[in-house]
């Protein structure tokens, strides 16, 4: 009698393509052979999870939420007791680094996401002088590099206290699908350097941009192509103001 | 340009000789091939139906058998059970020269048969049928728990798996020991 485990790899790949995210997740728990097989599988062979949103909130713990409108998965990764919980069910992970676990889970979720997300949120509430997860951005960076794929999303919202914080996420968004870019500071009176952000393809291609902080080190020329833009400046030179007036006049006439 | 015109004009005189109702019939008489499975029951299948199997199609096109040769040399598929091969032949006949539908609900409900069919179809390289079978196998476990999946797909647990492996190793060890003992006996 034929057992499923003895099926040729090509056949197993075909079968897995017809499953969904939840079923593949369950199948990983069935036995070691399946877990290894799934983890070694090329992203292309995995079914599309068709999630509408993914969000990450980092503070004293990491909260990852993703899914469709009908079904949401809520993960909480706590550093204090080294635990992970899914929809309220908690499991203590004895020997694993909780940040590594959280990033591995995010990678797993991203591998299944082939269609365009409605929104991707990445909110890092950590203050630079008091980091619960000091290597967060380094580890995320190497994961994104390994994933080697852009995240297709309509909305990208981020919270950080520095340009480098924003820049660790912004380049991984697919500029072709990105429509709205929202950048939040930890404190609305913060000022943040913009010189690298405005150079990105994502900044130039987004249709709507919202920056709720004082933007430093950017030119007015970097912001006149958008249908809608919200931005705060501490000061503006007479030349820049004059330039903006002219641009606005031309736009209004059209 | 002129050559095609010539082609049509030369074909034109032949037209009146063929009756209009026979025009729909295939011009070339269909060739048949013969296959049998483990049970040695021979099935006569048209080349058109066999087109679905990339493996058999490849064999046929390389052989260039005449009708008599084909009859004398049925393709043996010793690794496929008779009833499974019957299913495959029936499917090929039903879908001969037709575009395959997006879904096939006519597959075996019994999982053992379905798994055997998957293996046979994969071996014979019948792409569409393999897709339907894989979909049906996938649907069996969609939304099920790990324990349910283990039961439905008949997957041994890791512990059972290890025990079976150990058992196999032990047996292999014993056999090897037996052989050396026998060899030692021979030497005496």
Tally of structural domains of chain A: 2
- Mean pLDDT of chain A comes to 89
CATH class of the domain at 30-142 in chain B: Alpha Beta
What gross morphology of chain A would you assign?
A: elongated
Question: What structural class is derived from the secondary structure elements of chain B?
Answer: mainly alpha
Number of distinct helices of chain B = 9
- What is the CA-atom radius of gyration of chain B, in angstroms? 26 Å
* Tally of alpha and pi helices of chain A: 8
Query: Percent of residues of chain A in helical segments?
Result: 25-40%
Overall mean confidence score, pLDDT of chain B: 78
Gyration radius of chain A (Cα, Å) is 22 Å
Report the count of strand segments of chain B: 3
GO biological process, one term (chain B): protein ubiquitination
Region (Disordered) (chain B): 1-25, 160-188
Pfam family, one (chain B): Skp1_POZ
Biased composition (Basic and acidic residues) (chain B): 165-177
3D structure, described in words:
The complex is a heterodimer of chains A (254) and B (188). By secondary structure, chain A is α/β, with parallel strands linked by helices. Chain A has two domains: 1-45, Monooxygenase, CATH 1.20.1280; 46-253, no CATH class. Chain A contains eight helices and eleven strands. Chain A has helices at 9-17, 21-30, 32-39, 98-112, 136-147, 163-167, 201-205, 238-253, and strands at 53-58, 61-67, 72-78, 83-86, 89-92, 117-124, 153-159, 180-184, 191-193, 208-216, 228-232. In chain A, strands 1, 2, 3, 4, 5, 6, 7, 8, 9, 10 and 11 form an eleven-stranded mixed sheet that branches. Chain A is elongated. Chain B starts with a helix and ends with a helix. Chain B is mostly helical. Chain B is built from nine helices and three strands, in the order αββαααβααααα. Chain B has helices spanning 2-11, 47-50, 54-63, 67-72, 82-94, 111-124, 127-141, 146-152, 158-187; strands at residues 32-36, 42-46, 75-76. Chain B has a three-stranded mixed sheet. Chain B has a domain at 30-142: Potassium Channel Kv1.1, Chain A (2-Layer Sandwich), CATH 3.30.710.
């Amino acid at each position: 009698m034929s057992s499923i485990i003895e099926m040729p790899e090509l056949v197993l790949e075909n079968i897995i393509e017809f499953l969904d995210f939840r079923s593949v997740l369950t199948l990983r728990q069935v036995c070691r052979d399946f877990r290894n097989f799934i983890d070694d599988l090329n992203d292309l062979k995995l079914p599309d999870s068709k999630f509408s949103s993914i969000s990450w909130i980092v503070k004293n713990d990491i909260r990852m939420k993703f899914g469709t409108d009908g079904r949401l998965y809520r993960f909480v990764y706590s550093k204090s007791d080294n635990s992970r919980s899914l929809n309220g069910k908690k499991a203590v992970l004895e020997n694993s680094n909780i940040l590594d676990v959280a990033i591995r889970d995010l990678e797993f979720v991203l591998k299944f996401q082939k269609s365009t997300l409605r929104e991707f949120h990445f909110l890092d509430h950590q203050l630079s002088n008091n980091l619960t997860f000091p290597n967060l951005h380094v580890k995320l960076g190497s994961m994104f590099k390994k994933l080697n794929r852009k995240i297709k999303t309509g909305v990208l919202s981020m919270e950080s206290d520095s340009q480098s914080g924003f820049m660790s996420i912004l380049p991984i968004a697919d500029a072709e699908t990105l429509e709205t870019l929202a950048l939040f500071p930890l404190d609305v009176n913060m000022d943040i350097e913009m010189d690298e952000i405005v150079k990105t393809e994502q900044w130039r291609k987004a249709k709507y941009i919202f920056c709720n902080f004082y933007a430093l080190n950017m030119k007015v020329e970097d912001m006149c192509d958008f249908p809608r833009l919200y931005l705060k400046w501490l000061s503006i030179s007479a030349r820049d103001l004059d330039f903006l007036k002219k641009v606005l006049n031309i736009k209004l006439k059209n | 340009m002129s050559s095609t015109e010539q082609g049509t004009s030369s074909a034109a005189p032949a037209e009146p000789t063929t009756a209009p109702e026979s025009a729909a019939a295939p011009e070339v008489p269909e060739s048949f091939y013969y296959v049998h499975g483990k049970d040695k029951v021979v099935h006569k299948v048209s080349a058109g139906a066999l087109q679905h199997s990339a493996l058999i199609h490849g064999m046929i096109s390389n052989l260039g058998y005449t009708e008599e040769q084909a009859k004398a040399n049925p393709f043996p598929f010793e690794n496929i059970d008779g009833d499974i091969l019957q299913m495959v032949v029936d499917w090929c006949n039903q879908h001969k020269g037709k575009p395959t539908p997006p879904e096939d609900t006519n597959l075996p409900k019994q999982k053992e048969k379905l798994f055997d069919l998957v293996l046979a179809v994969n071996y014979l390289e019948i792409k569409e049928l393999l897709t339907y079978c894989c979909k049906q196998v996938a649907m069996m476990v969609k939304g099920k728990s790990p324990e349910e999946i283990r039961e439905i797909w008949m997957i041994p647990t890791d512990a059972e798996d290890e025990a079976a492996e150990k058992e196999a190793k032990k047996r292999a060890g014993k056999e090897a020991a037996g052989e050396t003992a026998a060899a030692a006996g021979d030497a005496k």
